[in-house]
Predict the 3D structure of the following.
Amino acid sequence: MSSRIQEIKLKNILFRVDADQSIGFGHYKRCSAILDELDRDATTILLTKSDNDFDSTPFKKKIILDDFPDINSEISFIKRIIKENEIDVLISDINNYKATENPGEYREYIEKLNSLNVVLISFEDFKIYDVNADIIVIPYVGSENLKIDKKKKKKYLLGPKFFVLRKEFITNKAIKKTSNKRKKVLVSMGGSDTNNLTSQVIKVLSKISIELEVYVVKGPLSNFTAEQIQKSFRNSNSNFEIINSPKNMSDLMKKSDIAITTSGLTQYETSAMGLPAIVISINDYHKYVVDEFAKSNSIVSFGLFNKSFSNKLKKEVLRLLKNTDLINAMSKNGKGLVDGLGAQRILDKINLQLN
């Protein structure tokens, strides 16, 4: 697919996105992936309420949104930022459980952003999607079936063909099959792992009879320690390796047989890499979304963390690792689901909107 990015060079783009321990880093990573498709001369500004140490270097400028007494005060501040930096396009990716605790207030916020004389692109989900923006992106499996008014539907970009992948997951897709007897399992619970699922998963893997090579990803705000992991594996035949904030996650996915991850954007990355994943949901809404995704037969929807977690996870891991045909089928399904052209398609639509 050829992109029309070069026809109109998007000069000044403002990204409104947050990332912290409770929200996670998926929304931020999605926005930073869009940067890779932009003209290098573009001025890109990160506008965020998250004043932490996550890497914001892909953006040319970072502006912190302080706490404001009301929505209008915050919008006035954003309006000034837009004027001072001659912003053409505003990309909002703040639809998370914290931002949408008050749906009416969230819709009002997006409405006011849309009044600021810029092209507004808003990433939404199944829960709140009836917002007023120039382009509304819901890039998830099953979103094509949402009941949206026909007159409004032309504003929507629906389904996984609009899912934004980082370039590493596009250029590094080939899966290498290893001859090593040890099965390789990737454990990644996102940038924060608020529920400390990593430690719980490791306890289960350390007790599995099959010899494993376990890659444990530690996000920038994860709380588990190397000592905790080492203690779990003390009497195990399996090995483990902790990788702190890996620069190239696709390499780890490439050499793994299966992944265990939490509900979020990572399941799309594993699918794009052809890596079957067991996905643990952190709440009922996420379970609904993961259940929809699991219909693609590239992941297993594990369900919610509960008292029967350990036995259930052990059985699921063994079921996959002992069934090569199933793993190969899931791998094939995943690679056919996300092609990596989502960012290009979205930018094409922005160009059309500017025209």
Notes: The mean pLDDT is 88. Residues 26 and 265 are 6 Å apart (CA to CA).
